[in-house]
Structures are given as C-alpha cells and as structure tokens.
Amino acid sequence: MPDPRLAAHALVRRFAPGIGVAGIDLAVEAGEIHALVGLNGAGKTTLMRLLLGMLRPTAGRALVHGRDVATAGSTVWARVGHLVDHPLVYPELDGHTNLRVSARLRGLRGAAVRTAADRVAEELRLTSCLRTTAGTLSQGNRQRLGIAAALLHDPTAIVLDEPTNSLDPAGVILLRESLLRRAAAGAGILVSSHHLDEVARIADRVTVVNHGRVVGALAPDTSEIERAFFAMVHADDERLSR
C-alpha cells in the first residue's frame, strides 16, 4: 500500500510551560480530505507546523510522502502546498507577480510559471486582482491569493490552516470545489477549520483534537455535527478534571 501523503507517529511537541502536541498519530491518505477540528489552543496549528517541518518534534516522527520531514529533500517539498497562519503574499507586489514568485519558489520554470499562475487565478476567480498591489487588496482577496499560491503547482500533499478565514460565500464555494477536484486527482489534503458544517461538506474524515491529543473522530454526515463536537470536547475536559 502506498505511503500516506502526510503522517504523524507518536508526535510530541513540548513548549514551556506546557505541551502543544502530546503523542498524536495521524495519516492523510492519497485522495482524502482529512479535517482537523478543535477549539483555539487545541494544537491544530502546532501539528500542522510539525508536519511541514516548521517545528521540530520533541519526540515522534512527522512524514511527508513517506519521508521524515527532517531529511526530506527539495523534490519532496516541491509536491507540498500549504497555508498556515497567514497567506504568503508580498504586499508591495501585484497579484500576478506574487503568483509567479510562488511558482518559482516551488520549482516551476519558464513558460510553466505563467501558465500555472494564470490557471490558478482563473480557478479561484482572481483575474480582476492580478494587477492590484497585494497590500491594497481586501483581506478576503489576500486570503484567496495565498490559497492560490499554495495550490498553483498542483501539490499532492496540501496543508491548509483555517483557509476559509475572511472568505465570502463565493470564495468558500470556490475553495470547496478546488479541494474536491484536487482530492479526486489524488492529492491528500489536511484542513483545519472552526466551521464544522463547512468541513463536513467536503471531508472524508474528521479528527477531533483537544489539549494536544486526538480525542476522537466524527463521521462527516453526523447529525448536528457541532453539537457532537462540543459534547466530545466537554467529555474529554471532564475526564481531565477528575
């Protein structure tokens, strides 16, 4: 069986004075949209940073395309796309230049740079923003530009932390359709969100994280999924307080 696109094995990251991630096991398979949900401070962003090699684990292993993130080379990372915390945009550059810079950073060269930039701009309806300086764009359009930069090279492993932040309903739908197409083409996608109803529309699996630990899973078609989520988190809090 092929390696998962992304995987965590007994992953731990300690911070003073506490633990950000405490022994998480997780796998994101090819063709899967895997949603990560939890309250603020649950460890979602820390886990994503560990999977992307932005943080070093205290213990355990993080793998991308079957390779340890500590030793994965440029050819492995060229197949990864991510947006964590803030969109990677240069405020002094216009939208099209931002996309071309992102394409080059991700290993594209020659005519492929412009082709990729134009294609993703059309896909996410950014063409009207391409000649506008990124620093003057609305927050929603900057977010959309950051998503485009993460996806333009057709990565096979995708990590998106709260990607619908600041997006209007049209932007949310465009993102939803884009991720579904990419999963159907074989990408493994890990996405975090506070909007459980939205991730339930696209996720194949929903993993619940609380206090740096995986505390359960929810079926995407769970009735009243938000109520089920809060019940799971509350039950875990109760266990910890005993």
TrEMBL record:
Transmembrane segments: none annotated. GO terms for molecular function: ATP binding; ATP hydrolysis activity. Keywords: ATP-binding, Nucleotide-binding, Transport. It comes from the Bacteria. Residues 6-236 form the ABC transporter domain. InterPro entries: AAA+_ATPase, ABC_transporter-like_ATP-bd, ABC_transporter-like_CS, P-loop_NTPase. Pfam families: ABC_tran (PF00005). Belongs to the ABC transporter superfamily. This is ABC-2 type transport system ATP-binding protein. It comes from Asanoa hainanensis.
